[in-house]
C-alpha cells in the first residue's frame, strides 16, 4: 500500500487525457456483436448466454418466444425479419448469429475474430453436411451459424414486406449471390464445429482453466460449437460442455458448481424452499426399514416438506403405513398414490408432479425409490442448494459400477458407457456433470416439472421417458459426485417368499446387511 506522503499526483493534462480515453472506450461499439436467437428461456439458451458472459462478448438475444417455444418452431421469414431489425441498428463491424438453444461459444472475442480473419471471407456459414463440400447456404444455415460483416449483411437482407412469406428468405439468399462479398461454407470446422452424435473426430483440450475443442481430422480449433438439432447431438453437446466455457478443468476442478447456488446457511429453516418428497416403491426391495429410518433423519425441516408415497408392491405397504403413522404428522401434508389408479410408474410420477405444481409453495420434487439408502443426512439440503433443474446424487451398488446415472445412451435407447463414466463414478473427477439419464433418486425444480408435465414423451421405461422429454425441452440433468451420499441396494435377487427376506441378502447387499444388524 502506498503511504500518503508518497502518493502519486495526477497532473490536469493527464486527467483530461485519461477522461477522454475513458469516454471513448465507453462510447465505441464492440467490434463484434453476437446475436442469439431464442424461443422460451431454457437450460440450453442460458448455457449459450453464460458462454458469452464468461468470455466477455457483446451478446444480444432476439426473443422469439411469442412465435414458438424453440427457434425451429418459428418461421424462417420471421427470424430473418427480426435479424434485419437488429443488424440495421448495430454499430459493430461484425455480427455472429447463432441458435442459442444449440450453441456454445468456445473462446474470447479476439480468438473468434482471428479465426474469421484467417478464413478471409465476408460471410462464414456453418456447413450442413461436410461430405457435400462447399455449397451455397441453405435457409437453415442463416439461423444456426453465420458470421458476417454487419454492413454487408444489413445491405443483403431486404426490408421486410408487409406480409412475410418464404419468398422473403429466398430474396436474401439471392442478394448474397448477387452482392459483393465472399461466402464460405465452413466444412473444415475452422470456425464452427458442428456436433453430431458420432463425434469421434472431436477431442477436448485444456489450457490452464479453459477447455476447448480440437477437430483431429482437420487439425483445427473451432471457436463455436453448434449441435445438430436432434436428441443424440444435443446430448453429445451437453456432455462436451461439462468441460467447456470454464466449467471444469484439471487445474481448477469444478468452476461452475457454485454458480446460482442457494446458501441455505443464510436462511432460517422456516425460509427453506418447500420440497415434495415422493417415495416410490416399484419393485420388491430389501432393507426398507433402514431406508425409511434414514429418510426420517434427513437434515431438512419436515414442516417444509410435502410427502407423497407410491407403493406398487402390496407386501411392502405395511412399512409405508408404519412410516406415515410415525412421521406423517410432521410433514406439511401426506398423499398416498393408489397403484390401482396408475397404469405404470410414468403415470404415478406425473401425478406426483401435478400435486407439486398444484401447490404454489412447492419449489422442488425429490424423487426417491426404495433402493436408495442415504447415509448422509445432509443429502436433501445439499441437492436443494445446487439450484439446478434436475440433480441426482451419485450413489452406486456395492462393489459394482451400477449407479444413479448413465454416461451415454445408444441409438436404440439402451445403456452406453461414456469415456468419463469411471472417472465420475470413482470420483477422480468431482463436480456437477450434465448427463443424459438419471435414476433411482433425483431432485427436480418446479420449472423442470412444468416443462416435463406439459409434453411428456412415454418410452419403454420411466427413466428413458424422462430423458426423451428433458432432451426435447432442453431441461438439463446433472449428477453430483462431490459428496458421499450413500448406497443403492441391489434388488435383483430379492424374494418375498422367505420368513425373513432381508436375511437372505448378506452376499448381494453386505454393507446394508451389516449396518442394519448393528443398529438392531
Automatic annotation (TrEMBL):
Domain named PLOD1-3-like GT: residues: 168-254
InterPro entries per the UniProt record, alphabetical: Collagen_mod_GT25 (IPR050757), GT_PLOD (IPR057589)
The keyword ATP-binding is annotated on this UniProt entry: no
Keywords: Signal
Signal peptide: 1-28
Keyword Signal: yes
Highest taxon of source: Eukaryota
Protein's name in the database: Procollagen-lysine 5-dioxygenase
Lineage: Eukaryota, Metazoa, Spiralia, Lophotrochozoa, Platyhelminthes
